[in-house]
Specification:
seven-stranded mixed beta sheet; Rossmann fold
């Protein structure tokens, strides 16, 4: 195969050569490394960590390390890299892969790629697009643009950290060619701008080691685990693995009975510290424990400091997670939601106490930002017993096929026509959206949608079971539990949030639902769409992006209207940018 005409040099060592090649790399010599850890047995953690150490040494400042793996063991490697502080965590990329049935928990399609960057300088990736997907019934885009279709980029949508639109493949023990091609398209080093993203570079082998002062270069390996080059021998089922340090007690044949608990401990919302209140509850007393802790992002809570030092934040989380594991019944389940960086730490801690079932990916794109738009929230699912736990998969395990859109008009028409294909619920949840409308939101910075909590509660409890949320905020978990006939326990340190939660539960017990008043928006003289299209038309006439002065001289709208309507001039120019390159 001919080498492409490009300054990019990529080394593809095979598995036997990889240790030698990594060891011989000069310091600060590579721009990127893609390490496919699925090609190795995850029990051999010291060897994998040695490869990671050599990779860090060989990367230049600003270089990128991609680490492929599966959620059963990848958190251990991610925490190893993050604690080292020589690299900076950027993304846990979830890659939808071949469906794998598991002996317990949800069927899995979640393979993963960790992305770390070396140094504090420029983050060398660029915006990359996947083609728009269209509904198999109505023909409109699967993404509902909500009246903003004029902002659709003709080349596709910017990818997030959840990749669902690549051909399904085994990305658990290897990297498929489309996934590797996407990684290489993301690279934003000078040499990558010179090529036209052809296919040949994927399997080009450069045996020469790079000069530390040379052009852009990378390493991808081991070679056997890449795309079309063949399989690897360590493709056993993940349940066969017990990682070092994760040895747990063997489950007894007869689980200990749940102790009698004072009824006053149920159907209650406590005001107080989570750990202190949890210590009042007996062992083995709760059926489902859930937490959506503050994300340590300096969000505006009333009384909680959401900007703790990393070590302090992790120590605090481990305190209440240990209590969660203690109070959980033998047949109970634990779910914890967080950003992927912190989810890795939760998984490493919980692996020593409970049984891993799934790292569920909640694909919940918020506002577009960054070169790789953040959409991934990690939802860990653990149980106290490896297989004997409440799991109502048959009741909630079918979804409408993803090749249909979620517009209510389309759903009504296709179901009336008898078009109702289904697909299984897996560990990638793409159909639950964040709260979009103010009328559905309380005064809380990170409120979860009712539909997310309803799925979790239906999946892992029965009527009359006890659901606990020790960081309950404004009570979405508890309100949903009460509405579904479960008992509830809530804890929060904020008196205002506790009052809101109690009021909503009382309303559910009285009416069966929480009534929310409609919110009327003040009507603008001009719509955002109307103004954005005006700037687009002006850009086409001028042959460039218009300035505020251009609007003053050439537009029928007063320039102040644009400043009143949009927070920045760039937001006003979004439609114009699709037509004219600045």
């Amino acid at each position: 195969m001919e080498k492409p005409d490009t300054a990019m040099s990529i080394i593809y060592p095979n598995r036997s050569d990889l240790p030698r090649v990594l060891a011989e790399l000069p310091d600060d010599s590579l721009d990127f490394i893609v390490l496919v850890t699925g090609a190795f047995h995850p029990l051999d953690v010291p060897t994998i960590e040695k490869y990671l150490d050599e990779s860090i040494r060989a990367l230049r400042d600003g270089g990128l390390l991609f680490v492929q793996g599966r959620p059963e063991y990848l958190p251990e490697l991610g925490v190893y890299l993050d604690r080292d502080r020589r690299l900076h965590f950027k993304y846990w990329i979830a890659v939808e892969s071949e469906l794998q049935e598991r002996p317990s928990g949800l069927p899995s399609t979640h393979a993963a790629i960790l992305l770390f960057a070396k140094g504090n300088g420029r983050f060398n990736i660029k915006r990359t697009r996947f083609p728009h997907q269209y509904c198999a019934f109505c023909g409109r885009t699967l993404k509902d643009w909500g009246g903003k279709s004029h902002l659709m980029h003709p080349e596709g949508y910017v990818i997030s950290d959840v990749w669902k639109d690549l051909p399904p493949a085994d990305n658990y023990t290897r990297l498929s060619a489309p996934v590797l091609e996407t990684i290489l398209r993301m690279l934003d080093f000078p040499s990558t701008k010179k090529r036209e993203d052809g296919q040949n570079h994927l399997f080009t082998y450069d045996a020469a080691l790079p000069d530390a002062a040379g052009g852009e270069s990378g390493l991808i390996g081991p070679r056997e685990a890449i795309g079309r080059t063949g399989g690897v021998s360590t493709a056993e089922r993940p349940v066969q693995y017990e990682l070092p340090g994760l040895a747990r007690r063997r489950p007894s044949e007869t689980a200990p009975p749940s102790p009698p608990v004072d009824d006053r401990l149920y159907n209650v919302v406590h005001l107080g510290d989570a750990v202190e209140v949890l210590r009042r509850y007996p062992d083995n007393s709760i059926d489902l424990v859930f937490a959506d802790p503050p994300y340590n992002l300096d969000k505006k809570y009333h009384v909680y400091d959401d900007e703790l030092a990393d070590e302090e934040y992790i120590r605090w989380c481990n305190e209440w997670l240990a209590e969660y594991a203690r109070v959980l019944k033998p047949t109970g389940s634990l779910y914890v939601l967080n950003l992927p960086r912190w989810t890795m730490y939760h998984a490493v801690f919980l692996n020593r106490l409970l049984y891993f079932q799934n790292w569920i990916v909640w694909d919940a794109l918020s506002e577009p930002r960054g070169k790789l738009m953040p959409a991934h929230y990690g939802l860990l699912f653990y149980t106290k017993h490896p297989t004997d736990f409440t799991f109502n998969y048959d009741a909630v395990g079918e979804l409408d096929a993803r090749y249909y859109c979620l517009r209510s008009s389309c759903i009504r028409k296709r179901k009336a026509a008898g078009v109702d294909d289904k697909m299984p619920l897996t560990d990638i949840w793409w159909d639950v959206h964040r709260i979009k409308h103010k009328r559905d939101r309380d005064y809380h910075p990170c409120q979860l949608p009712d539909s997310l909590m309803e799925r979790i509660i239906r999946l892992s409890t029965n009527e009359g079971d006890v659901v606990l949320d020790a960081l309950c905020g404004t009570g979405t978990t508890l309100v949903t539990a009460a509405r579904l006939g479960r008992r509830y326990v809530g804890i929060d340190i904020d008196a205002e949030y506790v009052a809101i939660t109690r009021r909503k539960i009382a309303e559910v017990e009285r009416k069966g639902y929480v009534e929310r008043p409609s919110i009327r928006k003040s009507k603008r003289k001009y719509t955002k769409k109307e103004l954005q299209l005006e700037l687009r038309d002006l850009a086409l006439r001028l042959g460039r992006l218009p300035t505020p002065d251009d609007v003053r001289h050439h537009s029928r709208y007063d320039v102040e209207v644009f400043f009143e309507t949009f927070p920045t001039w760039g937001k006003a120019l979004k439609a114009a940018k699709l037509e004219v390159k600045s």
